């Protein structure tokens, strides 16, 4: 299937039923507590690619302003094609236009769902997701209903049912990302959201919508990346010979404006960057590379090469 082919184009009116619960709230609470007990936040600095064509593949080129115009979406798609970005990230009303713009390219189309509060009910989110897939979206960035993580009475069961139902509607190769809105969550709630997203087989946890509170922070990305690594390791242990466990990845988004912000997020363990400043990041990176080359020629330094962030087994291939 090509990157831009609608995965559900033959089943336009078919919306699968919602999934039933897997664990009770208190069982989820116990599982989350276990994960928290063994979670240590990695201080590792992940290696980062420097060649612009490699960096571009980590970027979701994003335009989510409510007053965005069709002409701006056309421009966004042209930039994404030109730079070789991973996707363009747009609202539902522009998915079909973006898909048509990007036909024949390797650039995918990500659509935000439940944007930006996340509090829509499950039926609403399922309808939106179904419409996005039918229009050709290859990735869905779904906002967590984060008020359901309220510290006094968290509804883990309800959140899991929502996530599992959306995964059921959109199986791989559709890439599913859960937007946590980390500015609204405590570290404990962030870990809880990672546990639920991983159990529902989401491909990514994503920091922010860019519309509520601060954007991505190094601390949050490190926590999410460490939790994802631990959850994959736990599952690998449980899977024994069966293997095949995929590591959930982290998308940093919100307020990432320049190459230094982008590099810092990748160093903390993000493997996708959501930003409305993609073109500026690439411009800055090219300028830095030019300076480094110049310095290298004059001072005998070495141009940084491309390094791998994860092994093939660790990433899910998106
Ligand atoms: O999903 C991505 C964010 O909305 C992008 O946020 P930004 O406009 O602050 O770059």
From TrEMBL:
Q: Name one GO biological process term.
A: deoxyribonucleotide catabolic process
Keyword presence, Lyase: yes
| Bias (Basic and acidic residues) | 288-301
Q: Which region ranges are annotated with the description Disordered? A: 288-318
Top class in the EC scheme: lyase
- Which SUPFAM superfamilies does this UniProt record tie to the protein? Aldolase
Sorted keywords for this record are: Cytoplasm, Lyase, Schiff base
Q: EC annotation?
A: 4.1.2.4
Going by the entry's taxonomy, the superkingdom of the source organism is recorded as Eukaryota
Return the SMART domains for the record: DeoC (SM01133)
Report whether Cytoplasm shows up as a keyword of the record. Answer: yes
For this record, the Gene Ontology CC terms, alphabetical, are:
cytoplasm
The reactions it catalyses are:
2-deoxy-D-ribose 5-phosphate = D-glyceraldehyde 3-phosphate + acetaldehyde
| Signal peptide coordinates | none
Q: For this UniProt entry, which segments traverse the membrane?
A: none
Q: List the GO molecular function terms.
A: deoxyribose-phosphate aldolase activity
* Gene3D superfamilies, A to Z: Aldolase class I
- Identify the Pfam families for this entry: DeoC
Family that this chain belongs to: Belongs to the DeoC/FbaB aldolase family. DeoC type 1 subfamily.
PANTHER family recorded for this chain? Answer: DEOXYRIBOSE-PHOSPHATE ALDOLASE
Q: What is this protein called?
A: deoxyribose-phosphate aldolase
Q: Which organism is it from?
A: Coniosporium apollinis (strain CBS 100218) (Rock-inhabiting black yeast)
């Amino acid at each position: 299937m090509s990157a831009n082919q609608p995965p559900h184009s033959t089943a336009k009116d078919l919306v699968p039923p919602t999934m039933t619960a897997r664990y009770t709230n208190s069982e989820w609470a116990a599982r989350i507590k276990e994960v928290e007990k063994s979670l240590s936040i990695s201080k590792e600095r992940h290696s980062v690619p420097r060649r612009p064509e490699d960096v571009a593949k980590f970027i979701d080129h994003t335009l989510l302003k409510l007053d965005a115009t069709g002409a701006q979406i056309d421009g966004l798609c042209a930039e994404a094609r030109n730079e070789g970005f991973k996707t363009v990230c747009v609202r539902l009303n522009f998915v079909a236009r973006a898909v048509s713009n990007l036909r024949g390219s390797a650039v995918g189309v990500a659509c935000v769902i439940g944007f930006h509060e996340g509090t829509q009910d499950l039926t609403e989110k399922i309808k939106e997701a179904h419409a996005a897939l039918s229009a050709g979206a290859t990735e869905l960035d779904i906002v967590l209903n984060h008020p359901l993580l309220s510290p006094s009475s968290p509804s883990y069961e309800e959140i899991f049912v929502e996530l599992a139902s959306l995964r059921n509607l959109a199986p791989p190769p559709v890439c599913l990302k859960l937007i946590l809105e980390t500015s609204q969550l405590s570290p404990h709630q962030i870990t809880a959201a990672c546990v639920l997203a991983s159990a529902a087989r989401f491909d990514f946890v994503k920091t922010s919508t860019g519309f509520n509170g601060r954007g991505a922070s190094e601390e949050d990305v490190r926590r999410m990346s460490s939790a994802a690594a631990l959850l994959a390791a736990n599952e690998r242990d449980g899977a024994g010979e069966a293997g095949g466990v995929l590591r959930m990845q982290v998308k940093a988004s919100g307020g990432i404006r320049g190459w230094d912000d982008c590099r810092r997020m990748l160093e903390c363990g993000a493997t996708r960057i959501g930003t409305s400043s993609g073109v500026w990041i690439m411009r800055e990176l090219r300028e830095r590379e030019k300076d480094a080359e110049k310095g290298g020629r004059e001072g005998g330094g070495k141009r940084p090469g491309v390094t791998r962030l994860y092994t093939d087994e660790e990433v899910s291939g998106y």
